[in-house]
Amino acid sequence: MPDKATVDRAKKELREGKSPSTAAGGFVREEVEHIREGEHGARSSKQAIAIGLSKARRAGVPLKPPTKEQAPARTRRAAKQDLEVGQQERKPRAPSKKRSQATLGALKREGRQAASKQALSAQAKTAARKRKTASRARK
């Protein structure tokens, strides 16, 4: 569950006309902080970002699901469902207690290195390199 302050900040940014990805940034930042504080871990920086984006979608940020080139079908379907819940097009299902505990337990066993400055920097560089080659291919 995201902090109320993060949700309020995102809604304010959307009202100001900022892009959904900007509004979702706060949720990703919050997730990185959770990992750094030791609340839970993550297998990679990508996973930490994905968790933050999922929380943003479910909180009402109109962030489009990734395209076919960006993510596998399962991830796209999950993102689509998260978006529908956030936009009140689908009722949120009460999460199974066993499944929630299992997920949290798995995250707690993961390392904290995914939220380090070096890991996040490497992730940002890789993403930028992918964008650069993709834009070259379109020309």
From TrEMBL:
Residues 127-139 have a biased composition (Basic residues). Residues 1-18, 79-92 have a biased composition (Basic and acidic residues). It comes from the Bacteria. Keywords: Elongation factor, Protein biosynthesis. The keyword Protein biosynthesis applies. GO terms for molecular function: translation elongation factor activity. Residues 1-30, 53-139 are annotated as: Disordered. Residues 113-126 have a biased composition (Low complexity). The keyword Zinc does not apply. This is Transcription elongation factor. The lineage of its organism: Bacteria, Pseudomonadati, Myxococcota, Myxococcia, Myxococcales.
